[in-house]
Amino acid sequence: MKDKVRNLVILHIMFMIFSLGAVASKTAANSEFLSLKFCFFYGLVLGGLFIYAIVWQQMLKRLPLVTAYANKAVTVVWGIIWGFVFFNEAVTVRKIIGAVIVITGVCIVVMADKDNTETADDAENTEGVSA
Amino acid sequence: MIKYILVYICSVFVASVSQIILKTSSGKKYDSFIKEYLNPRVIIAYSLFFGTTFISLYAYKGLPLSMGPILEATGYIWVAILSFIILHEKITKSKMLGLAVIITGIVIYSM
User: Fold this and answer.
1) Chain A neighbors of B95, CB-CB under 8 A
2) What is the pLDDT of residues B55-100, one digit of tens each?
3) 8 Å CB contact between A33 and A81
4) Do B99 and A109 touch (CB under 8 A)?
5) A96 touches chain B (CB under 8 A)
6) Which chain A residues are Cβ-neighbours of B92 within 8 angstroms?
7) How much is the ipTM here?
C-alpha cells in the first residue's frame, strides 16, 4: 500500500515534469531555429523526456498499466494550467467541457482495458497485455 | 491551425508506433538492467520518440500549449488500432465507446 502511494506520487511528479516539457517545446518553437534560446529549451525537452523514459519504463513494471495510463490523463489539466500561466491562453467553459470529456473517454478506454486484462490474468498471468 | 493540428496528430501516431514496439519488447526477459534498455527494439522505439519531439515542436509553432495534451489523447485511438493490427488485440465495445468519447472531447475542445 505504502509502495503504491509512493509509486503514484512518483508517477504524478513525472507527469508534471513531462507537461513542463511541452512548455519548453513551445518556447523553443517560438524562438529562432538553432538559436541559443532554441537549443536551451530543446535541450530541456530532451532532458525531460530522458527522465520520463527511464521513470516510465520502471513505473510500468511497478504499477498496473491501467493505473499508469488513467492517471496520464492529468496532463490535459496541466496543459490548460501551464497554457494559462506561461502563454496567457484563455481558459473557456468550452475548453473545460472538452477536456473533461477527453479525460472521461480516456478513463473509459483504460477501464475497458482493465476488464480485458483481468480476464487474461485469470487464464494466464499476462500483466498489461493491452496498452 | 488545422495544419498544425494534423502535424501534432502525426507526431502522436509515430509515438504510438514506438509504444507498440516498446510493448513487444517489455514482454521479453533480459539478462541485465542495461540490456532492458539497450536492445534494438527499445533503441528503435526511443529513436522514433526522439523524432516526435521535432514534429511536435514544429506543431507548437501554431498550436496553443493546452491543445498538445488534448491531441495526445488520439494516442489511445492509434494504440487501439495498432494493437488490433499488430498484436491482434480485440477492440471491445466499451473501448470503442471510450474512443468515441475522446474524439467528441477533442472536437469540442478544438471548435
Assistant:
1) 108-109, 112-113
2) 999 999 999 999 999 999 999 999 999 999 988 888 999 999 999 9
3) no
4) yes
5) no
6) 112, 115-116
7) 0.85
